[in-house]
Amino acid sequence: MFEPKRSIFAVLLLINALITTSVMASLFSPGLVLAKTKARSQTPESICEHTLCRPPQTIRLVMDDGRVFESSFAVENPIVHKGWVSIFPGETLLVEADRDGNRLVNLRAVKQMRDPDRTLELKFWQDKGKPDMSLKVNNPFPKAMKYHAVMVLPESDKLYKTSSCPVSAGKIALERWPHAVFELLLFDFRLVEDDASKSRCKF
Per-residue pLDDT tens for 171-186? Predict the structure, then answer.
């Protein structure tokens, strides 16, 4: 089944518009309809002149009922934009980050591992023949890392918040979903003390 979906470029620009118009609280509701808000006048081409972008691609996912969902992008799409990291099934990403106190800032996607001490490694995949999804996050920093995550489902134009677990210092964490996820958007990366009071898996 082919389903053309909104490009990540449009999603990221919408998020930026939402943040700058002070309606971030709406994002944390169970769902956010994307179609009703117009993004600022940027183009994928203009963004990709200054940041690493993914090439056009086709996403195929096994749905809960066994159907195969398929959607294609005809243009390049940014991997990181305005501090938000997007990842699609089948991708492994390298994202460098600088520290500003305990905040991770100036996030940027890179093609190769240049500085392991400040490079996040993210891998997102679907189990073969099943709808189940996994995200692996490698934290290179000397403190535990937390972040927020929202997901886009294959047959929806909404963003849904999803829980995420802290990633211990210098360790790898694995997240799992029992259903197909078209895309994950990760943001608000920060470092915390690695103690039990902050180890809960939540949004």
Answer: 999 999 999 999 999 9
Q: What are residue 125's phi and psi, to 5 degrees?
A: -150, 165
Whether the CB-CB separation of 61 and 182 falls below 8 Å is answered with yes
DSSP-assigned beta bridge partners for residue 145 = 167, 191
Residue 111 and residue 94 in contact, taking contact as beta carbons nearer than 8 Å: yes
In a domain, 113, yes or no: yes
Considering the domain boundaries, does residue 140 fall inside one?
yes
**Nearest C-alpha neighbor of 187 from the set 103, 129, 70:** 103
Domain extent at residue 149:
8-191
* pTM attached to this predicted model: 0.82
In a domain, 165, yes or no: yes
Average pLDDT over residues 94-113: 97
In the DSSP assignment, the letter for residue 36 is T
Give residue 180's identity as a one-letter amino acid code. Answer: A
